[in-house]
Design goal:
The chain is α+β, with helices and mostly antiparallel strands and about 100 residues long. It is about 15% helix and about 30% strand. The strands form 3 sheets. A 3-stranded antiparallel β-sheet has the order 1-2-5, with no helix packed on it. It comes from Athelia psychrophila.
Length: about 100
């Protein structure tokens, strides 16, 4: 759903979401009634890292992409964890999130 909402396509050589124009929209999702958001600066691959993926050219790439046919809708990964505090309460089998300062 991310690709159809954002206008991107999966790049076959990297597996990343690829855009011909720079996305300007914030990506938001809701967990337990609380909305969490990532800005383009947070979810786009920095151009300085393109060489690590063998990327060249003037397209834009995102760490966020559709889960495909695997049935995975969303994985809370590095970009989310860089921007939100996570508390793992193993005693009560729960996870909490808070905005980073």
């Amino acid at each position: 759903k991310f690709l159809s909402a954002s206008g991107g396509k999966t790049d076959s050589s990297t597996g990343l979401a690829k855009f011909t124009t720079k996305p300007t929209g914030t990506f938001s999702f809701t967990i337990g009634g609380t909305q969490f958001a990532l800005t383009p600066a947070q979810y786009l691959v920095p151009t300085a890292q393109y060489a690590n993926f063998g990327i060249s050219g003037s397209s834009y790439y995102s760490w966020i992409n559709d889960g495909g046919s695997s049935g995975v809708d969303f994985i809370i990964g590095q970009k989310f964890l860089e921007n939100y505090y996570s508390v793992f309460d193993t005693t009560n089998s729960r996870i909490g999130f808070a905005t980073a300062a």
